[in-house]
Amino acid sequence: MSSLKDICSGLPFDPLPPNRGRDPSMPHAPIRTPNLTAEEERLALRNALRYFPPSHHPTLAPEFAQELRQYGHIYMYRFCPVLRMRAYPLDEYPCRTRQAASMMLMIMNNLDPAVAQFPQELVTYGGNGQVFSNWAQFRLVMHYLSEMTEEQTLVMYSGHPMGLFPSLPSSPRAIITNGMVIPNYSSRDQYEKMFALGVSMYGQMTAGSYCYIGPQGIVHGTMLTVLNASRRYLGSGDLSGRVFVTSGLGGMSGAQAKAAVIAGCIGVIAEVDEAPLRKRHEQGWLMEVTSNIEQCIKRIREAKRSKTPLSLGYHGNIVDLWERLLLEFERTGELLVDLGSDQTSLHNPYNGGYYPVQLSFRQANQLMTTDPDRFKTMVQQSLRRHVTAINKLSDAGMFFWDYGNAFLLEAKRAGAEVEKAGGGATEFRYPSYVQHIMGDIFSLGFGPFRWVCTSGDPQDLAVTDNIAATVLEEISAHVSDRIKQQYNDNILWIRQAGKHKMVVGSQARILYSDQKGRVRIALAINQAIADGRVSAPVVISRDHHDVSGTDSPFRETSNVYDGSAFCADMAVQNFVGDAFRGATWVAFNGNLMGEVMNGGFGLMLDGSEEAAKRASLMLNWDVSNGVARRCWSGNSNAYETIQHTMEENRQLRVTMPFPVQDEHVLDRALQG
C-alpha cells in the first residue's frame, strides 16, 4: 500500500510501478485532438521520456505512444499513485517546512476524486483545468516540496518543476506560471499542440495555482449573483416562486443547484452527462432529477405555485429545455422562467465544453474526435438555436445574463443574434454578470476570500467561521447602507455555512469581503492560531475571479470602459506585488486560447507576528491594486472606495482621475 512517504520519494524507477491504465470507475477527460504531425508525435514522446533514465525508455515509450494516440495526451497513468488523493492533515506530510506542507495539502486536495472533475487526467475543473500535465510532474513536485528549506523556491513552468532555486526566507516558496505563450502563437490549435507536446498547459484559475476548494466557492458566488440579479431585475431580493434556468452540473457549474436553493428560488439545471448529475444528487445538492421534459415543466409549475425552493436537474440538453419553455409560452402565454444564464464550458467549445443539441452525449464524444470539423459546425448550429430560444423568452420578459463562460462570445462567433446595437467591444445584447451584477461589487473591493484549515478538523473550521462572522458584524455597524447590504449577505452566508454542509475535500470556507474585512479576518485567525483556539496553520487565498486577480475582457474586466479591458497590467502587477509582499506561493495563468490572464496566491498563517505582517501588507495590496485600476477607468464606486482607503492609510497614494464634465468640450475639439 502506498503512503505519503512513498509519493514524496520521487519517481519510482526500481522497480517501475505496474501500469494499471485508466480506472474505469472514474470519470475521464474527453479525448483530445491535437492533430500532431509524425515529427510532432516523435517530439511529444521524446519530451515525455526526459523524466526517465534511458534504461526504462524501451518499456515506457510504447505505452506513452499509445496514450498519445488513444487519448491525445501522455498522462503517464503508470505513475498515478495508488494512495487515495485527499487533503491529509498538515503534520502528516514528510517535509522540512510547514510552508511546503501547506502546498502539498492543497495540491492533493485539487486531485481528490471528491473534488476533481477528471482526477486521473489531473483536471480539477472546467474540462481542462490542469494541476499538472502528467503524473511524473506530480511526483517530482511532491519530492521537491518534501526536501525544500526556507531558503529555496520551487519554480514551476506549466506543470513542470524546473527545480529548487536558492532564495530568501521572505521569498515565496513557489512561483508558478501556466500557459505563458507569446501572443501571436496563442490560439486553440496551438494550445492543443503545446499541451500534447508537454510544454505548456492551461491551469484555468485555481487548478494550476493549487487553491481550488471544491464547488463551495462558486456556490457562494452564484448565490450572490442570483440574489443581486433579483434585486436589479425583479426589484426584490425575495426569490420565492421565481425560476432560474441554467445549464451545467460539472466541476464548477455543479454549484448552481445548491446556490439556487440557498437563494430561495427554483433552480432548473440541464446537464447532458449523467455522471455529474448523479454525483450532485448523491451529495444532496440536487434535490430532484428527471430526464422527462414534460415532468420538468410540471415540477416547475408546482414549485412556482407553492413557492417552494427547489433544485431540479434535467438530464438532457439545455437547448431542448429552452425550446420547450418557449413552446409553453407560445401555447399558453405563461412565462415559466424569470432569470436565465448558462454555465457550459464554452471556453472549450469543441473538446467537451459544449454538447450540440443534435447529438446524444455518446455521439458527441465520438464525433469530436472522429470528425472535429463537422462537430464544430454542429456546435455552432446548436448555439444559434440556443440563442434564438433565449432571445424570444427575453422578449417576453425573462432576464438573461452571461456567466463569463464565453457563451455570448462563442455565440457571436457562431453567427447567433447577440450583437448590441452601438455596443462597445465587450458588450453584447445581454450583459455579463460582471457588467450588470457583480462588477460594482468588485469596485467596492468585495471579492471571494477563502481559507483552508490544514488540521483537517471540522472544529477548527467552525471556530474560523465564527471569527469571520464576528469580524464582519463589527465592521458592518460602521459602513454605508450600500456596503452594509453586501456585509449582511455574507454574514448570513457564514452563519449558515455549517448547516448547508458546503465542505467537499479540505476543511475550507469562502465568503465575499472587502479589503478591511479580509485583513481583519486574516489577522483574527492568525491570533486564534497563536492562542491555540485553532489547532494548526490556516492557508488563506482567494479565487482569481476577483477585484484585482484577473484581466478578462468578457468577464472580470468587462465593465471597464476606458479601452483598457484588453490590457493585462493589473493581473501581472497583482502576481508580482503579492510575491514580494509576503505570499507563500504565487501563480500566474495565461490562457493558451488568448482570452484571459489571471493570478492568485496562497499564504500560510501560523500564528506568528511575521505571518500577521505578511497578511496585512499583501492583502491590502491585493485589493487596492484592482480598485485603483477600476477607479482610473472611471468607475464611481471604485473612486469612492479608494478615496476612503487612502484616508485610512496615509502611505497609500493613488493617481485619481478628473472626469470630463462637459461632453461639448470633446465635440468642439474634434470638430475643429
TrEMBL record:
Q: Does the keyword Isomerase apply?
A: no
Catalytic activity, EC: 4.2.1.49
- Which family, according to the similarity comment? Belongs to the urocanase family.
Q: Which residues form the Urocanase N-terminal domain?
A: 85-211
Q: Under which name does UniProt file this protein?
A: Urocanate hydratase
Instruction: State the residue spans of region: Disordered.
Output: 1-35
Q: Name one GO biological process term.
A: L-histidine catabolic process to glutamate and formate
The species this protein was found in: Salarias fasciatus (Jewelled blenny)
Q: Which UniProt keywords apply?
A: Histidine metabolism, Lyase, NAD
**Which molecular-function annotations from GO does this UniProt entry contain?**
urocanate hydratase activity
Q: Which domain of life is it from?
A: Eukaryota
Cofactor requirements of the protein: NAD(+)
